[in-house]
Design brief:
Layout: E1 10-14, H1 18-28, E2 33-40, E3 43-45, E4 52-60, E5 63-68, H2 75-81, E6 100-104, H3 110-119, E7 124-130, E8 136-143, E9 149-153
Parallel strand pairs: 1-5, 6-9
Antiparallel strand pairs: 2-3, 2-4, 4-5, 7-8, 8-9
């Protein structure tokens, strides 16, 4: 590996409804909200609790999950975004609907994750298999409110 990375620091998902996404990720799945931002006139505001544009949730380890509403870039911002990143005058990070991502879960916590999904009425699929190193792996798949496919995966990538 060319970099010494400890894992995912943050991952942002674009959502259609902030209220629906918060209800799913925080209320149903239990991930705590650690920060929320508003967005007005092209600027982020951490003190605007009435116009929530981004919500950050702690999902374990070194990782937080961002739930972001779509950004509406001005025509000038769109021109600026096309420049090489080192020449940007601002920050133009932008989500998009992600298809799939996986979060590591320890094997001993796998059954309790199934119980959380079952209790919340969330449809899921479990796949258990033995990998090439003869290690037993478990995968738990479900969708969030925005049709992102979320996976809880017992394989620790450090050992893989």
């Amino acid at each position: 590996m060319k970099f010494t990375i400890e894992g995912i620091s943050e991952l942002a998902l674009q959502v259609k409804s902030m209220d629906r996404a918060i209800d799913f990720w925080s209320n149903k799945l239990g991930f705590p909200i650690v920060e929320q931002w508003g967005y007005e006139s092209g600027h982020f505001h951490q003190n605007n609790k009435e116009n929530i544009w981004a919500t950050w949730l702690y999902v374990g380890g070194h990782t937080r999950l961002g739930l972001w509403l779509p950004r509406n870039f001005s025509p000038l911002d769109k021109i600026e975004k096309k420049k090489t990143i080192s020449n940007w005058k601002g920050l133009y990070d932008q989500g998009g609907i992600h298809i799939h991502f996986a979060l590591h879960i320890k094997t001993e916590n796998f059954d309790s994750a199934i119980k959380v999904l079952t209790d919340a009425g969330i449809d899921y699929k479990v796949i258990e298999e033995v990998n090439i190193n003869m290690q037993k792996e478990k995968r738990l798949y479900f969708k969030d409110t925005e049709d992102n496919v979320v996976e809880f995966y017992t394989l620790d990538m450090r050992g893989d």
